[in-house]
Design goal:
single chain, 472 residues, alpha+beta, Rossmann fold, Dna Ligase, domain 1, D-amino Acid Aminotransferase, Chain A, domain 1, five-stranded parallel β-sheet, 15 helices, binds adenosine monophosphate, binds glycine
């Protein structure tokens, strides 16, 4: 099969690697010269991913039989529509359905129109004159979000990014004054809990869940610093998370299914990956955002677990409307992803640093290496840009063991860079689990949910009846 991968980051390298493992011929359309993708590609085109026409022409001339769109920008630019019009089956929705991600306003209005509860209280403000009253309607802390695409970076949370309601209002006012502010600003009730990402493959024949993942959004260790696209992530052996019960996971999937049904009811069919960003609260999972693609880094956890099977055939099923469920098989193993980024990534990235990457030793350590926004700089060398550079993915039977593997492999990346070493560490995962346990403690408001908080890295076999019922 001749499969075109659109995008040039770590996620696209991971997608291309799986396609290559399935013996597909990989074609690439990327804005940068990603060394990992370049090595896998039979042919490639450099594109800013804003104009579909040259990429459609490339797909035609290369006789692409499938296209997989990695990032959100080409989805927003109508690459899905244009490739489908050229009769190339696509993994990724058309521009109109991709608005579940590209317009937070569209997403919230879709949920409201179809009576889908399960999100925070939201107010959409378009007129700066009404900001004061809107802010005043939140009795507690709130969150300010631009209505459009920001790669997770424009969201400000009270208590982390601003202190007082007045500061939040001032930030909202600044956003409204920007050209992108004409769609408005979302004010949301600040939810307390632990975040997780639940992705699913979506096509006409159904919604097929992928393993749950926890992403680390803040730029610095200890969850300090600004929100980023994601510094790394982990997944647990049983495809749940240490604080996520089967019941809570199923409730999040039910929400995703309802989003798909709502889109369909509005005449917006969906073939691609749907990503739910959830907050697990005392009252169950709440939907914070939808994305119309694999998460990055979360996609790396999930793709690394894909069993030797025909990934190209699986994605072809998504693109053409019917998935063969026997192709959906993910190893029962834990994974940890850590991204190597330029110092200052998120706020003031210092791009340009050259790194020495000993890829054979990383491979020999049993750790996967995916290249993201780096430029090749000679044999075994890459130059960092302002974005995430390299992803290391460790796999083991327990999260802390996968973490140890990644940490050991980092010695083979030399140069000036930053990495969040706490991602997937036993101490950090325990802290997150404790956070959820405290939130659900009997002294807190009684939970209607039989949420389990298992010990970190609880073996898969312990699932079934929840390890610990917090309502007990
Ligand atoms: P979003 O792009 O909407 O996912 O927001 C980016 C990040 O901001 C999320 O991953 C959360 O860490 C945080 N966030 C967004 N909305 C809320 C909310 N309503 N309550 C608490 N934190 C939030
Ligand atoms: N890691 C969050 C995202 O892919 O949007």
């Amino acid at each position: 099969m001749r499969a075109l991968v659109v995008g040039g980051g770590g996620r696209e390298h991971a997608i291309a690697a799986e396609l290559a493992r399935a013996e597909a011929t990989v074609l690439v359309a990327s804005p940068n010269a990603n060394p990992g993708l370049e090595r896998l590609a039979a042919a490639s085109i450099r594109s800013d991913l804003l104009d579909p026409a040259p990429v459609v022409e490339f797909a035609r001339s290369q006789r692409a039989e499938l296209a997989v769109i990695g990032p959100e920008a080409p989805l927003a630019a109508g690459f899905g529509d244009a490739l489908r019009a050229a009769e190339v089956p696509v993994v990724g929705p058309d521009r109109a359905a991709a608005r579940v991600e590209t317009s937070k306003r569209f997403c919230r209005e879709l949920l409201a129109r179809h009576g889908i509860s399960g999100g925070p209280k939201v107010t959409i403000v378009t007129d700066p004159g009404t900001l004061g009253a809107a802010v005043g309607s939140f009795p507690g802390p709130f969150v300010v979000k631009p209505a459009g695409l920001t790669s997770g970076k424009g969201v400000w949370v009270q208590g982390a990014d601003f202190a007082t309601p007045e500061e939040g209002a001032a930030y909202a006012r600044t956003l409204l004054a920007l050209p992108s502010g004409r769609d408005g600003v979302l004010l949301e009730e600040k939810l307390e809990g632990e975040e997780f990402s639940q992705m699913a493959l979506v096509t006409d024949s159904g919604v097929y869940p992928l393993p749950a993942v926890q992403d680390y959004k803040r730029g610095l260790e200890g969850d300090r610093g600004g929100n980023t696209g994601g510094m790394g992530s982990y997944s647990q052996r049983d495809h749940l998370l240490p604080f996520l019960s089967t019941d809570a996971r199923d409730r999040s999937l039910d929400l995703l299914r309802r989003v798909v049904a709502a889109l369909r009811a509005d005449g917006l069919p969906y073939r691609g990956v749907l990503y739910g960003g959830f907050m697990l609260t005392r009252d169950g999972p709440k939907l914070l955002e939808c994305n119309a693609r694999f998460g990055d880094p979360e996609g790396l956890n999930v793709l690394s677990l894909y069993e030797p099977g025909d990934f190209a055939e699986l994605l072809m099923g998504v693109a053409t409307g019917r998935v063969d469920p026997t192709l959906l098989s993910f190893r029962l193993r834990a994974t940890v992803v850590q991204y190597v980024v330029p110092v200052g990534y998120g706020d003031r990235p210092a791009g340009g640093a050259e790194l020495e990457v000993d890829a054979p030793s990383i491979d020999a350590a049993g750790v996967r290496l995916y290249y993201a926004s780096v430029d090749a700089a000679g044999a075994g060398r890459v130059r960092l840009t302002a974005s995430r550079g390299l992803a290391l993915v460790g796999e083991a039977s327990a999260i802390h063991e996968a973490h140890r593997r990644v940490e050991a492999a980092l010695q083979f990346v030399r140069g000036t860079y930053y990495v969040r070493h706490d991602i997937g560490s036993q101490e950090d995962v325990r802290r997150r689990t404790e956070h959820m346990r405290t939130l659900l403690a009997p002294s807190a408001k009684a939970s209607p949910l039989p949420l389990s908080v298992a010990a970190p890295d609880a073996p898969a076999e312990s699932h079934g009846p929840p390890a610990q019922l917090l309502s007990e």
